[in-house]
Amino acid sequence: MLSSASTSSRFMPPQATEVAQNVDTLYGFLLVISLISCVLVIGGLIYFAVKYRRHTENDKTPYISHNATLEFLWSFIPFLLFMASFVWGWIVYHQLRTAPTDALEVMVRGQKWNWTFAYKNGRTSASEMFVPVGQNVRLIMGSSDVIHSFYIPAFRTKQDVVPGRYTSLWFNAEKEGDYQVFCAEYCGDQHSGMQAKIHVVSREKFEDWLGNDPYKDLPLVEVGRKVYTSRCVACHTLTDQKAVGPGWKGVFGRKEKLEGGSDITVDENYVRESILDPNAKVVLGFPRGVMPTFAGQLSEQEISGAIEFIKSLK
Ligand code: HEC
Ligand SMILES: [Cu+2]
Q: What is the pTM of this model?
């Protein structure tokens, strides 16, 4: 059988949880069984084709109706293998799906095109989350728009994130490190950019982070930069290049043409309204309803920060 060490280093992402090792071992088993079956079937096919090929004009193939022993073996051995894969798969699946009751719970929200996280003490973060090493963690996940899927390759676990209901997954990361999260359900233009990092750190580091105000001592414009890189970067550039939404360079103070024929000078009120009620005024040439509202998601400090940041992009 493939050793899990070699699978992880050569063909697979790192295994950061026990479940990941179990998934890989089962996967290795299936791979080896399939390989052996393939060799037996294709090898047998070639062997018999050569061995029983027509030698002379009047070759006679003996008539064989059946062979009870052989038929039993080629039914019963696969049956055992199928049952073994089923039971083994069921055990690993059960482990993958059943969260321990003592898990640290974190709320996760997917929205085009980023992930945000909320901890019980009120600490929130976007595009990255911190968890202590060796801790059972349960994510309770929802979507604000379309179906997304929270996928952590190194943990070998993935769960759809659906509007209108909560789904969950759990993990226990055994190794400190940064692990990549992908969205694994096509959710529009910037789907492939819908990523996050899970930082698995020591318990002290985690407690530090959890109690830490992420914007402490930061000037507003830097708060805005953080908001931008975690929440707006999927759709807005810092140049005058348009992406999904308008580029931000030089936008502040400019006269903006709107859908419907009117125009408006971009000031603090307009930016604030664009963040909280994006469809109130839609920039000419851009689709309505693509920018999600950030009402209830950004604090006043973050909104002011975003305004300052946009203002700074001359
Ligand atoms: C899913 C894509 C998307 C995300 C994410 C997004 N926006 Fe937008 N944004 C748009 C689109 C599309 C428009 C143009 C249509 C409109 O006005 O609603 C727009 C327009 C704007 C405008 C008006 C710009 C102008 O030229 O007049 C502002 C200001 C703005 N967004 C701010 C933000 C901020 C701040 C964030 C992050 C907190 C953000 N947006 C996140 C898509 C997005
Ligand atoms: Cu997505």
A: 0.78
